[in-house]
Amino acid sequence: MAQRLALQRLLSLPSRGSLASHGRAFGTSAGRRNTFNVQDGSDFQDRVLNSTKPVVVDFHAQWCGPCKILGPRLEKMVAKQEGKVLMAKVDIDNHTDLAIEYEVSAVPTVLAMKNGDVVDKFVGIKDEDQLEAFLKKLIGA
What we know:
Structural class: alpha/beta
GO molecular function: protein-disulfide reductase activity
Number of helices: 6
CATH topology: Glutaredoxin
InterPro entries: Thioredoxin, Thioredoxin-like_sf, Thioredoxin_CS, Thioredoxin_domain
Number of strands: 5
CATH architecture: 3-Layer(aba) Sandwich
Keywords: Disulfide bond, Electron transport, Redox-active center, Transport
Protein name: Thioredoxin, mitochondrial
Number of domains: 1
GO biological process, one term: cell redox homeostasis
Helix content: 40-55%
């Protein structure tokens, strides 16, 4: 009963402006704008191979446990680079042709691409320090 009264009081408080004024804004983060799911071969061509920025390509699968750990960790590290690098996510079950073309034999496989060329690669999970070093090497920082 006390919890219900506390909740009613909280809900009846007058609004004090948006949540943004309290430092808790919601919306699309910069990291999300730098990360995208590859839709097909032409999308890969346009957004990865023709990109003016370096691109990290995360080959993953829905059924892959390590992919579920690495994916969010990698997205977070890409977001920290403040737009200097993009991240393309490629589901190998939906894009087998790309997986074969880039010789992906295990997931997760992550490629570092610059000007349409693979310049670095790793397979498996990495910790945040290793990911940061991988990204800094790619962007030349």
